[in-house]
Amino acid sequence: MRTYKTAKALQKALPKDKTIAYVPTMGALHAGHMALVEAAAQSHDVVVASIFVNPTQFNDETDLDTYPRTPKSDAALLKKHGCKYLYLPGVNDIYPNGTEHSAAEGIDFGPLTATMEGANRPGHFDGVAQVVSRLLEIVQPTTLVLGQKDYQQVAVIRAMVQRLDIPVSILVVPTVRAKDGLALSSRNKRLNKKERVAAGTINVQLAAVAAGLRAGWPVDVLEQLALSGLGQNDLLDPEYVQIFDGDTLLPYLDGDNVRELVVATAVQCGPVRLIDNRIVNQSNS
Ligand code: PAF
Questions:
Q1: Which domain holds residue 106?
Q2: What digits encode the pLDDT tens for the residues 175-211?
Q3: Going by CA atoms, what residue is nearest to atom 5 of ligand 1?
Q4: DSSP letters of 169-229?
């Protein structure tokens, strides 16, 4: 694996006649990221990954400052799992015209950014769209590989790719979970032992909502039960539990016919804000 610090050097090195799968990351890599790299390697000639902690998508300075940074072990993991090109840029390489400039500026994402993470983290998705549009401009991959854990992020990036007419496919890889069901996340590293145990409850509550939906329980009852179930643990402070249509991200109303039914949550656990989701069911209609 070769590491490149500038867009120019990476672009010069990338093969022109091969399929390229691209895994954008913010580092502090774990088995969830490696599932993305492996899925990428299975279906493409080469895998490119990037590590860039994008300042414009953080709406909380402390979160940006304390975001785990482990570039040496990240590089070793990527190499082991078949990544051939690592792009490790600085802020000036990503934003040569300053962080104000964004190719995605002015895109109205409508309901896709009006709820959940969009409502709770002002500006977050503008920063994500800004950095991903720039990264795609640099890497120009055949396929962009993203994790299902960031369900709303995938929806926003999909919409951005469509609106900007970027010729790239999107491959979404299922969430990788720890033994107790906690979704793997770089931020989990910041949980102490008690918080880590408490965080296991998040998946339990989402699974209960999914089971309730399949059994025909009303949406508002299930959301309330999950919120109070999470809140019973002193170490957890749930922000939302939302059941929604996976295509529009609009709240699901009992009886609606949707292609993909999803439940998602965000929970403050000690110093860390954790998100997770479950696809309840899918149909091809
Ligand atoms: O999901 C992430 O790690 C980030 O939001 C991404 C897609 C790498 C953009 O900074």
A1: 2-173
A2: 999 999 999 999 999 999 999 999 999 999 999 999 9
A3: 128
A4: EEEEEPPPB-TT-PBP-GGGGG--HHHHHHHHHHHHHHHHHHHHHHTT--HHHHHHHHHHH
